[in-house]
Amino acid sequence: MIRAPHRPKLVVIGNGMAGARFLEDVLAIDPGLFDITVFGDEPYGNYNRILLSNVLNGSQDAKEIFLNPLSWYDENGITLHAGKRVTRVDRAAKRVYADDFTADYDYLVFATGSKPFIPPIPGTPLHGVFAFRTLDDCRNIAEYALDCKTAVVIGGGLLGLEAAKGLMTHNVAVTVVEMAPWLMSVQLDEAGGKVLGQTIAKLGISARTGTVTKELIGHRRVTGVKFADGSEIPADMVVISAGIRPNAELARECGIVCDKAIVVDDQLRTSDPAVFGVGECVQHNGTIYGLVAPLWEQTKVLAKVLSSADATATYSGSKIATKLKVMGVELASMGRINDLQPTDEVVQFSEPGRDVYWKAIVRDGKLSAACLLGDLAPADDLMRMFHAGADAPSRRLELFFTAASAKKEVSLADLPDSHQICDCNGVCKGTIVQAIKAGKCTVPAVGKATRAGTGCGSCKKLVKGLIEAVAGGVRAEPSESWYVAAVPLDKPTLVAEVKARGLKSVSAVLRELGTADDEKSRNGLASMLKGIWGTEYIDERDSRFVNDRVHANIQKDGTFSVVPRIYGGITSADDLIKIGQVAKKYAVPMVKFTGGQRIDLLGIKKEDLPGVWTDLGMPSGHAYTKALRTVKTCVGTEFCRYGTNDSTGLGIDLEKRFQGFEFPAKVKLAVSGCPRNCAESTVKDVGVIATEGGEWEVSVGGAAGAHVRKTDVLCRVKTKDEALRVIGRFLIYYRDNAKWLERTYDFSPRIGIEKLREIIVDDSLGIGTQLDAEVEKTIAAYVDPWLERDKPAYAGQFDEPKRVPLPVL
Amino acid sequence: MGVKVQPMTTTVTRIALCTLDEIAVGLGRAFDVGGREVAVFRTRDGRALAVDGTCPHKGGPLADGMLIGEQVVCPLHAFRFDGTSGACDQESVCAVEAFSAEVRDGTIYVTVPLA
User: Does B69 touch chain A (CB under 8 A)?
Assistant: First the structure.
């Protein structure tokens, strides 16, 4: 880089989100304008403090939350003093003093941020008492939590709740203590705070509101917390998150005018014309902002002023509106919800069943504040209205319920370019669209180019939508990788999210992760969740297709077909007689042999299903669902002159072992006792063929339906047990990695047979025993669904239409 | 919930069908109301929706369908009908008749023509 000889010297004290963002804004205007030096308290590059709780709860690694690595400073010719604290400023000499050296400045910017407020109570120096503000705090808390069973978080604001959530993941029982009468007293009113309290109680976190902490007790280590009312609770550790205080001491000491924080004017200038301030350490027009969005506005203005790109740029204060996610609870807040005047109008909506609470305050015909909890459907509209200062609708209820709101969301295309998509980083639609047009066609690429989606991540969905809208057709449709259409995540991500968030029902997944709702997606999620959670799965019958509700296959006339399980296709005289008797008793219109060697009773009325099953006394053949269907066999060594191995024995064992296993699509197996392949093993999802030397050849991914495909050979094994194990591993791997409705004949070539062989046979991922354990778990969870004949799972499951006569006039 | 406007010549009657608990959450049940097939659904938020029991496409039993939001999805070929208006989501398919339904004190009532 060519350096101009006499560039003005710009010194920034503070390398947090404000300091670093300010530098970026300056560089964006002109990278060669200043000779820049920056001091950071922490020995790192700068990181996204918003994501600290993710580091604490383990969902992100510390290195993932860095915004600019140390190399970034080098590349941009910035001198970074990381881990160096500025101790004194000599304004007359325009010089700052650090531990053992000095730096001269032409312009000085304070971006010193804030520090946690530690209440003046006895006991805070004890071991096991932490603040929650820095990356080091996170590490220390996580380490200390290993030996703890109970923790108390002091402070029920956003950060306190995030800390509590983080501690939960370390298996610590958490109590949150809040001085105000309700949680998140800045963003919520009392009713909203109570709803939030109930919601987090369900997550196992207890909250004590209206509670003043008097003392932290313990000898060397903290052992408990004592409250003003005299009560005490035990605590192996305490995290203090009782608010923040601006770091204004350094400025105050050098004589710059400070009130609660460093006082700045509309150009972010302090009382000294060469000294400026941005972020949480400054006070503008009497207000200190503790959120990121105002900070972005400030750094942008200051960069323009200092670089003379627009020397008249001014900052006129920020309208505070934010969307947050606290412990999985969505929350939107704008304005000051607890600032209520007698002339204000209040519009409120609550739906306790879903833990939803909305409140809006209208002042002088305009939306002045709102909070939304649990469901953010109207949030975007309200935020637009709030930011624009637009008139509230004259029918006030339309703030929440517009006539068309249920049907039509504002489409991304209709949003103005100035509409803010990423609230964390203050990125507008226009900026993102530009990046996409410049070829950034993935969410991470857009994030890298614009920062959008790199904060809390909640706008990634919108970014994805914009990529589709702008670049659609240019690249492969991203939804192709999704497991189901209603949730924009590929399967591994979806599974990880579902596990991390403990989502055990379809409605919970759709609520937390979904962007749409349709029957196929619900069916797919139901199948996946059952596989993940086994007996813990919360089975919502309204997410099942009718076949899976009544365990039979619906036919064109609304009747059903019944296929009893006949293991390996081997039946007996007694079973055949029973089937015949049932067919007669219920006047079954058609009795047919299926392609998979089973018997199908067609045309059975729904109300007759329980009777038919009882009279058959055989388990369900699962011919109606995405599950293991049949294992077709040839006669094998028992009778066949050519058979070389016991195909019927293996077929029966396979079917008994894997019956009831649910998959993303139906799965058909076959076992042939010699290479003549009479069971057509080479066109099955899993086919087994006995070879001359007494081995079994296992192959996968075949089909003989609308699509015909020969199987790929996976391996040869010597024994029946080995065959059972390798097939079990393949089936679970397929179950856990295939997209919904993806048959093995698509899955196998997609993954590639070599890779499958490495994973399944050579155990290259080291997941073999895990797959085996999943097989055992799934076997243990198997219940014959036809047993619901004795005890229907829900009202009217097998009932005929209820007759209701009309009154006669 | 607005009462559906019926033709002038038709007399309508409101009649109790069953208790809310007789229909599972998010599912439907088939009724024969004076000879008329009616599919009644219980939404996840505890309301009731009532439409003609038969899909106009191929006669599928709508009560066996899934309820997605307020859309009844036919179990045979996944045609969708609005549970309040009866309108189909595909232009070429005619609407099903929809009946005003309400839940009062845990009982589901529908308003049907007396014919």
Answer: yes
Residue A158's pLDDT band, with cuts at 50, 70 and 90, is confident
Give the domain A545-620 fold. Sulfite Reductase Hemoprotein; domain 2 (3.90.480)
Find all residues with CB under 8 Å of A155, minimum gap 6, and list them. Answer: A176, A177, A178, A240, A241, A242, A243
| Residue A548, CA distances (Å) to A531, A540, A623 in order | 15, 11, 10
- Contact with chain B for residue A556, Cβ under 8 A: yes
Residues of A in contact with B34 (CB under 8 A): 804-806
CATH 3.40.50.980 fits A118-242, yes or no: no
Predicted pLDDT of residue B92: 61
Q: Report residue A150 as tokens.
A: 């109970």
Residue of A546, A551, A797 to mutate for B, most B C-beta atoms under 10 A: A546
How close does chain B come to A406, measured CA to CA in Å?
10
Distance CA A188, CA A332 (A): 9
> Any chain A CB within 8 A of the CB of B76?
yes
Mean pLDDT of the A727-755 span: 93
Q: Can you name the CATH fold of A420-534?
A: Arc Repressor Mutant, subunit A (1.10.10)
pLDDT at A657: 97
Higher pLDDT, A734 or A147: A734
In order of their start, the domains of chain B are 21-114 (2.102.10.10)
For residue A351, list chain B residues with Cβ-Cβ distance below 8 A.
45
Angle of the A429-437 helix axis to the A460-471 helix axis, nearest 10: 50
A283 close to A246: Cβ distance less than 8 angstroms: yes
Nearest C-alpha in B relative to A792:
B24
CA distance A598 to A567: 9
In chain A, the percentage of residues whose pLDDT exceeds 70 is 96
Amino acid at A554: I
Three-class SS state of A733: helix
Q: Is the pLDDT of residue A167 over 50?
A: yes
Provide mean pLDDT across the span A462-475. 73
CA distances from A286 to A96, A157, A316, A338 (A): 27, 22, 12, 18
Read off the pLDDT band of A1 (50, 70, 90): very low
Query: What average pLDDT does the segment A125-142 reach?
Result: 88
> So what's the pLDDT on residue A473?
41
Stated as kind and residue range, the H or E segment containing A139 is helix A135-145
Average pLDDT in chain B: 88
Domain boundaries, chain A: 9-114+246-307, 118-242, 321-395, 420-534, 545-620, 625-783
Q: Give the integer Cα–Cα distance in Å for A688 and A651.
A: 9
